[in-house]
Specification:
Layout lengths: L1 E2 L7 H14 L8 E2 L2 H14 L3 H22 L3 E4 L2 H9 L3 E4 L2 H7 L10 H12 L3 E6 L4 E2 L10 E2 L1 E3 H7 L9 H7 L3 E6 L3 H8 L7 E4 L4
Parallel strand pairs: 1-2, 1-5, 3-4, 5-9, 8-10
Antiparallel strand pairs: 6-7, 9-10
Helix pairs in contact: 2-3, 6-8, 7-8
Length: 220
């Protein structure tokens, strides 16, 4: 599960979500991959000012994910931040919430394109592939993937599409542009859900109907 950094813009809602995740960890084996939020935004700002190399900006943004992860570990009851995938498995089996800090793994393996097309969405998908999880849940501040920019008028929520269809969008939606390629390489059902409504996150984990977008590993 990726918890998007944009949710930190409303602290009370993020704290409520984190409390819910702690309860859900008693029933489901979870691992949280942090988004970047304002930490990654700061890197974008410095990139624009100093024209950083793609390698440097990519690594700095990943370190921003580590920072947001430390914040999540602070406000999530019964959680623990870790750099090790082996710890993630052990912690999830004890009903704790492992917060995976991705920098050490991503710096060592450098498996993804160093580009702003790759964000915490793709990194979460990569970690999901390493862990061979049943579901990938991207928790963000919007209801899912829309036909156009959700800030515009007359847009519709897409309830389900395939990874192939997402790839054909060829633009950033509420998920990054590289995610579809990873979902094609290591097929897993990916849900994009609004973390301002923790009940929807719970419904997705339980296989129940919820307002969200399912990017299906199987053709539509």
């Amino acid at each position: 599960m990726k918890v998007g950094g944009s949710l930190a813009e409303e602290p009370e809602l993020l704290i409520g979500l984190c409390a819910k995740l702690s309860l859900l960890a008693e029933k489901y084996e979870l691992v949280v991959v942090p988004g970047g939020g304002r930490f990654a935004d700061a890197v974008r700002d410095f990139d624009e000012r100093f024209n950083l190399s793609s390698n440097v900006s990519h690594r700095m943004a990943i370190l921003g994910m580590d920072q947001f992860g430390m914040l999540l570990a602070q406000i999530t009851p019964n959680s623990c931040a870790t750099y090790l995938l082996s710890d993630v498995k052990q912690l999830s089996e004890t009903e704790a919430v492992p917060i995976f800090l991705p920098s050490r793994l991503m710096f060592k393996e450098d498996p993804l394109k160093n580009s702003w097309d790759v964000t915490s969405d793709s990194i979460a998908a990569y970690v999901a592939g390493k862990l061979q999880v049943a579901k990938l849940v991207l928790v963000t501040d919007v209801d899912g993937i829309f036909t156009e920019d959700p800030d515009r008028k007359n847009v519709a929520l897409i309830e389900r599409l395939s990874a192939e269809e997402l790839l054909e969008f060829n633009r950033r939606t509420s998920v990054d542009r590289f995610l579809a390629k990873l979902l094609l390489e290591a097929p897993v059902d990916c849900y994009v859900v609004n973390g301002k409504h923790p009940d929807r996150v719970e419904a997705v984990l339980g296989g129940q109907q919820a307002t969200c977008t399912l990017v299906s590993a199987r053709p539509k």
